[in-house]
């Protein structure tokens, strides 16, 4: 099934997806933006500490059209040392208190790999989605917890694939993701969003192989989230810095949308929404 997809997936997904967020359906018929709010002191690009900064960031993202706010309190940059669970919870309680005061009705995702942290955020702050960059590998209770919480789960591929060549790489990636999706369904998780994990366990070349062949992942019949904003696949290729990767981010967002991405996880919400508007217009002109 998975190998076949690599040779047969020649068109973009035309599926109209929706996800259940707090009892309401969020349509992904047209792509949406997930805005990033890093409540950390050590993220690789942009961080927001203190109530005033978090409130300002929340208002900015919503004014610029973010459909989802992704709040994290644990840096996931390469070589990161995570805070302990208690500190991550403290940071998130501070941030989510502000976010909920500013935007009580907003769709909020929590970016965490810890099941207890996810549980706290959903139960205390009504967070509607869990974004786990470890794909369940760093906390074996995560799948069970998400199923009990009945919230959508963003499944990130975060593993090294030690193969050469485009087709073998995509075959292993698709097989790995398909296997974890089956585990999630067996645990009772209903709403799953795929994040192929740009920058996680992949070489520079593999990141671009993945982007070039992104449409292959539509074989799994799940909405697709792309997180490339200011990542090293841009600034290492160009010999610049994360701060200088805005233009490259826009280029990659455009390619991802052309290949059927449903959610762009982005630092610059306005620019990402402009990409979506232009691609939607282009798609509307197709005959």
What does this structure look like?
The chain is α/β, with parallel strands linked by helices. It has one domain (32-78, 85-277): Dihydropteroate synthase-like (TIM Barrel). It has helices spanning 2-8, 51-63, 85-102, 115-125, 142-149, 166-187, 204-212, 232-238, 246-258, 269-284; strands at 18-21, 24-27, 32-38, 68-72, 108-111, 129-132, 153-156, 192-195, 225-226, 263-266. Helix 2 (51-63) links the parallel strand 3 and strand 4. Helix 2 (51-63) packs across helix 3, helix 3 (85-102) runs parallel beside helix 4 and helix 4 runs parallel beside helix 5 (142-149). It is globular and about 45 Å long.
What attributes characterize this protein structure?
alpha/beta; TIM Barrel; 8-stranded parallel beta sheet; 10 strands; 15% strand
The named CATH superfamily: Dihydropteroate synthase-like
Q: Report the end-to-end length measured between terminal Cα atoms.
A: 31 Å
Q: Briefly, what CATH class?
A: Alpha Beta
Q: Might you state the CATH topology name?
A: TIM Barrel
Share of helix, binned: 40-55%
Order of strands in the sheet with most strands: 8-7-6-5-4-3-10-9
Strand proportion: 5-15%
Element pattern in H and E: HEEEHEHEHEHEHEHEHHEH
CATH architect. name: Alpha-Beta Barrel
- Class from secondary-structure proportions: alpha/beta
Could you say how many structural domains there are in total?
1
> What is the 3D form?
globular
Count the DSSP helices: 10
Low-pLDDT residue intervals, each spanning 5 or more residues: 1-14
**Rg from C-alpha positions?**
18 Å
Would you count the extended β strands for me? 10
Instruction: Let me know the largest β-sheet.
Output: 8 strands, parallel
């Amino acid at each position: 099934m998975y190998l076949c997809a690599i040779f047969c997936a020649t068109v973009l997904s035309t599926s109209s997806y929706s996800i259940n967020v707090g009892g309401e359906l969020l349509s992904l018929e047209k792509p949406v933006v997930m805005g990033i709010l890093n409540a950390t002191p050590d993220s690789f690009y942009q961080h927001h500490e203190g109530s005033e900064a978090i409130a300002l960031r929340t208002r900015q993202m919503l004014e610029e059209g973010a459909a989802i706010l992704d709040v994290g309190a644990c840096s996931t940059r390469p070589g990161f040392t995570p805070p302990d669970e208690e500190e991550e919870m403290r940071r998130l309680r501070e941030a989510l208190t502000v976010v909920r005061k500013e935007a009580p009705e907003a769709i909020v995702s929590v970016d965490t790999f810890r099941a207890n942290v996810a549980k706290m955020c959903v139960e205390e702050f009504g967070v509607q989605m869990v974004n786990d960059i470890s794909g369940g590998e760093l906390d074996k209770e995560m799948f069970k917890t998400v199923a009990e919480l009945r919230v959508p789960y963003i499944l990130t591929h975060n593993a090294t694939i030690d193969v050469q060549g485009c087709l073998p790489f995509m075959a292993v990636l698709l097989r790995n993701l398909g296997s974890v999706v089956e585990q999630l369904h067996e645990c009772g998780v209903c709403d799953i969003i795929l994040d192929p994990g740009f920058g996680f366990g992949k070489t520079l070349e593999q990141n671009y192989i993945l982007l070039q062949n992104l449409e292959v992942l539509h074989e799994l019949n799940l909405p697709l989230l792309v997180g490339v904003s200011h990542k090293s696949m841009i600034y290492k290729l160009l010999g610049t810095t994360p701060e200088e990767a805005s233009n490259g981010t826009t280029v990659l967002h455009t390619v991802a949308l052309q290949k059927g991405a449903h959610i762009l996880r982005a630092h610059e919400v306005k620019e990402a929404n402009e990409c979506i508007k232009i691609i939607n217009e282009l798609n509307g002109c197709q005959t």
